[in-house]
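Supplementary Note 3. Input sequence used for the single-chain structure prediction.
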Amino acid sequence: MVNDPIGDMIIQIKNAGMVGKPTISLPSSKGKFAVASILLKEGYVRSVEQKGEAPRLQLVIKLKYVNGKHVITDVKRMSKPGIRLYVDKNTIPVILGGMGTAIISTSKGVMTGKEAKKTGIGGELMCEIW
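The predicted structure, written as discrete structure tokens, is reproduced below.
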């Protein structure tokens, strides 16, 4: 059995947006919270909150809609548990001419592709979202 919690989370966000759900709740982890915080900072979700106690901590994400339409058009999981995809600072992709976001796990934490280029570091290309 292969577990991909980050991939599951971004697909749950996409699917919930397609059917018009206002929020989703899923088990929390440091990695999921870091990715969700980037989605919040980039304007893809309305809020990100952790609720509950330590062993059963839940991540509650409120989705964002504009004119009744979900702001996330599509997501693509790039690095998977079976095949990790690493990029250096010169090969960080630009998503839809800058309209989308690449999320990268670096040695300095999880950040967007733009931040990683500005910092001058590469890392694991986790996903692309637009």
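The longest helix spans residues 5-19. The chain has two domains: 5-70, 75-129.
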